[in-house]
Inverse folding.
């Protein structure tokens, strides 16, 4: 049994990770400032003796004793990370410095939830880990993209300078139950709109692509990655390579919800990446992993979740 710190543990991905790692018998400290996460997401874990919830902002130092750290604290939806961009950069950068400092003192293994956004609006397709990306340093997405890029730099410098055991994963679009209904990301927006009989808002012409991974597949690879040998640091892409246009996603959502809603077109946000698909050869080779859940199946489970909380 390990003592494990999960920052951002009350968020969408973090809460699933808390659930899985606590079920495996580990002692979990879940840290969150509840900016986008909720106590509700981890309410079912609160009465477990091996689960502890702490309100804390990772931009401030944290003193706890643990064996492993999963650093997920950071808003992930463009709407939320652009709400207070200075705080977003601080969360990624100061948060990484604080968590890496903690890991160094404890000689603890540390996982970083990096992102496909480090590739920006990619000119290499599908994206491989060796690609350095095409990122605007001064645009509305930069607080997130550059914050996460700087966090990667810090992780690799702590690895080189202090021999810290790091695991850096570049997460591609992931969806599933416990996304916030007002999260603002495309999957939750479309499902909530379809269930409420509102029009589905497509930004731009709907031909931009994303590759969507169901949360259970993602949690599986995060835990497998953490268990790899010390020398293997990543960065490693994790996600589902099946790529869809936003129009295809909207149409599938309408079909699965039996909704009569229509598609309406709105302005494309600035610097919105045109295409995105992970090359997951490294994850396959190092962890013997590939996602199992197809979009249709994962969307249905997510629709069932939203249906249960909206009615
Ligand atoms: P989320 O917004 O649901 O979760 C983020 C959590 O971090 C929330 O609970 C939030 O309250 C917390 N948080 C934010 N700032 C904090 C701070 N300063 N101190 C403490 N807690 C703070 O988003 P998510 O989808 O669960 O994403 C989790 C992590 O995975 C993020 O780091 C995100 O960048 C990364 N990621 C997610 C995706 C995805 O598709 N879901 C893709 C790429 C990367
Ligand atoms: N998008 C959309 N309608 C929405 C929300 C998002 O068409 O209601 C588009 C958005 O412009 C982007 C894609 O869906 O091209 C994915 O957006 P999301 O915010 O989910 O994630 P990210 O852009 O960070 O991949």
């Amino acid at each position: 049994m390990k003592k494990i710190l999960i920052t951002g543990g009350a968020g969408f991905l973090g809460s699933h990770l808390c659930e899985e790692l606590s079920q495996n018998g580990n002692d979990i400290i879940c840290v969150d400032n509840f900016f986008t996460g909720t106590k509700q997401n981890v309410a079912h874990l609160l009465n477990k003796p091996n689960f502890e919830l702490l309100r804390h902002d990772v931009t401030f130092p944290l003193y706890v004793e643990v064996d492993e750290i999963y650093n997920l604290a950071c808003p992930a939806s463009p709407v939320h990370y652009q709400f207070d961009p200075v705080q977003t950069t601080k969360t990624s950068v100061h948060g990484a410095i604080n968590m890496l400092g903690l890991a160094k003192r404890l000689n603890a293994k540390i996982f970083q939830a990096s992102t496909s956004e480090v590739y920006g609006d990619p000119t290499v397709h599908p994206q491989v880990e060796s690609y350095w990306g095409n990122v605007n340093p001064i645009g509305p997405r930069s607080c997130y993209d550059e914050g996460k890029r700087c966090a990667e730099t810090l992780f690799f410098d702590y690895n080189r300078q202090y021999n810290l055991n790091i695991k850096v994963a570049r997460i591609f679009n992931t969806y599933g139950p416990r996304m916030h209904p007002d999260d603002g990301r495309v999957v939750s927006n479309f499902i909530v709109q379809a269930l409420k009989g509102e029009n589905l808002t497509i930004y731009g012409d709907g031909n931009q692509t994303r590759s969507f991974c169901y949360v259970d597949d993602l949690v599986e690879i995060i835990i497998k990655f953490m268990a790899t040998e010390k020398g293997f640091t990543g960065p490693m892409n994790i996600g589902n390579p099946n790529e869809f246009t936003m129009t295809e996603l909207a149409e599938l959502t309408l079909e699965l919800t039996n909704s009569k809603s229509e598609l309406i077109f709105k302005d494309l946000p600035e610097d919105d990446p045109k295409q995105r698909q992970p090359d997951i050869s490294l994850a396959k080779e190092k962890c013997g992993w590939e996602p199992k859940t197809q979009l249709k199946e994962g969307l249905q489970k997510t629709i069932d979740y939203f249906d249960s909380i909206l009615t």
